[in-house]
Amino acid sequence: MKIGIVCYPTFGGSGVVATELGMALADKGHEVHFITYNQPVRLDFLSHNLHFHQVVIEEYPLFEYQPYELALSSKMVEVVKKYDLDVIHAHYAIPHAYAAYMAKQMLKEKGLDVGVVTTLHGTDITLVGSHPNYKTAVEFSINNSDVVTAVSNNLKETTNKLFNITNDIKVIYNFIDVDKYDNAHKEECKRIALAKPHERIFTHVSNFRPVKRVEDVVRIFNEVRKEVPSKLLMIGEGPERAKAEKLVKELNISEEVFFLGNSTEVTKILCYSDVFLLPSQTESFGLAALEAMAAGTAVISTNTGGLPEVNIHGVTGYLSNLGDVADMAKNAIAIVKEPSTLEKFKQNAKNHTRQFSLESILPVYEAIYTSCYQKKEA
Length: 378
Ligand code: GMT
What we know:
By secondary structure, this protein is α/β, with parallel strands linked by helices. The protein has helices at residues 13-27, 68-83, 93-109, 135-143, 153-162, 178-182, 214-227, 241-250, 266-270, 287-294, 325-336, 339-352, 358-377, and strands at 2-6, 31-36, 50-54, 87-91, 115-120, 147-150, 169-171, 200-205, 230-235, 257-261, 275-278, 298-302, 317-320. It has two domains: 2-175 and 358-377, Glycogen Phosphorylase B (Rossmann fold); 178-356, Glycogen Phosphorylase B (Rossmann fold). Helices cover 41% and strands 17% of the residues. α8 (241-250) links the parallel β9 (230-235) and β10. The site of ligand GMT has 20 residues, from α1.
């Protein structure tokens, strides 16, 4: 099949899912076309069946805000026509689902048909999408997609609660290439470079937006290190990084906390990690936690959104109420204090990720594309 993928090209989870999906589809022989404003960060190669089409916006003095959706939908029309695409898969409703709907209408005028699949990722519904500025357009684009998917049961329920949804929403969990983490850089995993053998390594990976509550990460770690010698690796960039760094200085723990910035080699860093900290305000799924679990890392998280569908309380880690730093620190200490307990949680976490394997989820997306394709052919 010929599939267009529209996504954010950044380090965020929706872009990562879209890119990993596109690369896996191309691997299986489908022709995949990424349409976005930059080459997606995880898209590290292009081939005869893996293409990237850049949406370029020219500056014009009249525009205080550049009309990205217009340029995006025009680019979609151009690519669908040129490569005879069967389906466009829009990741993150704003503005991708809306632009895909417009492209479909423009193509219809020319006697062409393309299926539109929209995947809801989280903040496009919970934090941004339900804001009155966007709500009407988001609801319209969900109801007018050929197929709509959400990355967790919780996100599906939330979408149905916040919007007047007339379309069926299918739940397709985020997925992981388990083998990539199994064999990941084993020989390169030089843990000793970061921590002494008796020290535990905590990790946080995110885009450091307010929703991630990175100061809670630092506070949890600060409580843990008082009981168990540990190090904290903070991976990612974003608006809250400066606040987290300031807090680290105030708590006088700069020698134990490392801010590593954005990384395209998260698997290499995760191989060191014992416990992943994710105290988010909300998380529709928590792909970063799943990636950590696949690398054999226990998870301390909040119980918000779809996190309980990923992190199993008392098995793969622990869940706490939002903002309950003391409880999250207590749970983290309970995991890392005894080596045998830590080992059990790490193993459980790794085993649990098999439920989210690429091999089981890829055919579900393929079946959805086929249903759009068949509709087109009929
Ligand atoms: O977490 C972010 O801020 C990034 C965001 C995105 O859309 O790029 O991630 C969302 O989509 C991921 C992939 O489906 C989910 O695993 C994340 O839980 C979700 N983030 C939130 O709901 C806050």
